[in-house]
Amino acid sequence: MNINISKSLQDLRREKGNTQEELANYLSISIQAVSKWERAEGYPDITLLPKIAAFYGVSVDDLLGVGELRKHDLIKKYRTRALELNGRGMVSEAVSVWREALAEFPEDHEVMSELARYLYEEFTVTKRAESLNEAIRLCEKILAKSTDREMRSFAINYLTAFYKALGDHKKSMEAAAMGGSMYHSKDFLVSEAAYDDEVIYTHYFTGEKITGDQWRKSTISEFAEILAHVLDYTNTVDPLTRHEFILNMLKLLYSDGFYGAAARRVANSHYHCARIYAERGDEKKTREHLEGMARFAKQYETLPQEFTFKSPILNGLKRYNETAPSRKWSEHFLKRITEEEYGSRTFDRYREEAWFKKIIAELEGKAGIRQAGDPV
Fold first, then answer.
1. In this structure, are 49 and 138 located in the same domain?
2. What domain count does the chain have?
3. Are 100 and 229 members of one domain?
């Protein structure tokens, strides 16, 4: 109860623009007592709770944090429902779940952020600009009203992507310019400041206590993903050099062959390398990369909901896969190497080869393939 009251008193005072002295005078107690409550060094007598709640115009449940805990549990249930639907390819139904959540919590920025994210997912499927425009309005509302740094960061990231998807380069760049330098980011600074065993935060979905050690390993993984992402857009470096660098970098990081969510990016880089080698007529390299593409597409699709990395650098880092497994990545790459609209003729010379037919069968789900954690 201490922690909930402490945070509630701090938040309410800042939200209402009051001072500790004003609350102390209202309750006829010392300012030192109010200060101790906010520092979680004590808590009010139970007989004072209704008066404190009345002073701030909230319920006693809200003051104790009970209302916030109830809201957190309900939002978690909405999230679980949406993830299950999205995992089955029912993205519009998942959007409806978050619309329902927003109707219940109309000013909650976390709910707005989730709805915006799913509207973007809907746009990628339907190509309806209305979905993206609604997502943009939600993000702009978050930026206009939220003082939470993390919520604002989400909104800025989303707006950068959403405006780019709409083809509005100017607004995409304006949103990107609101972001901070990597060296001033929370990830970088907390990695420098935190002790190994210090609890940094509680995971929003699982309730796990995240320590400084876990934070650093997570940051290493995320920075590698950022570097790979930036390389994808570095057009002054030839594609083969870019994608082979990405593959080599991630192979060092995930040296035991289990890549977690990064398996999707690895599958994509293998595909691009395979295309280049096929154009050069190098069958050995083409086969090697197409097999890697299929293997890591399958690894990504079969990720468990919870997993722990065991590679030396990331050893002990826990991750949670919030998206239910689906075959969409195998299907995605199957289209890329078989359908003419994706330039599949690049692989025409290999179509009758037994190894190529085996890869097709694997992507179609008709043959065995190495699973997550198998050696590369």
1. no
2. 3
3. no
How much is the pLDDT for 19? 87
What are φ and ψ of residue 157, in 5° steps?
-60, -45
What number of helices (H) and strands (E) belong to the chain?
Answer: 18, 4
Q: Does residue 139 share a domain with residue 58?
A: no
Range of the domain at 203: 194-363
Whether pTM > 0.90 for this model: the answer is no
Q: What angle do CA 76, 161, 75 make, to 5 degrees?
A: 10
Residues in the chain, overall count? 376
Say how far apart CA 87 and CA 93 lie, in whole Å: 11
- Specify the pLDDT at position 368: 46
HEC-encoded secondary structure of 263-317: HHHHHHHHHHHHHHHHHHCCHHHHHHHHHHHHHHHHHHHCCCCEEECCCCCCCCC
Q: Which of 39-43, 92-96, 212-216, 252-256 has the lowest mean pLDDT?
A: 39-43
Question: What's the one-letter identity of residue 118?
Answer: Y
Given its phi and psi angles, is residue 308 left (phi above 0), alpha (psi -120 to 50 degrees) or beta? beta
For the beta carbon of residue 309, count every other beta carbon within 10 angstroms.
21
Would you list the DSSP string of 172-195?
A: HHHHHHTSPPGGGSHHHHHHHH--
Q: What is the CATH number of the domain that holds 52?
A: 1.10.260.40
């609604």: which residue's tokens?
A: 134
pLDDT, one tens digit per residue, over 161-202 is 999 999 999 999 999 999 888 888 888 888 999 999 998 887
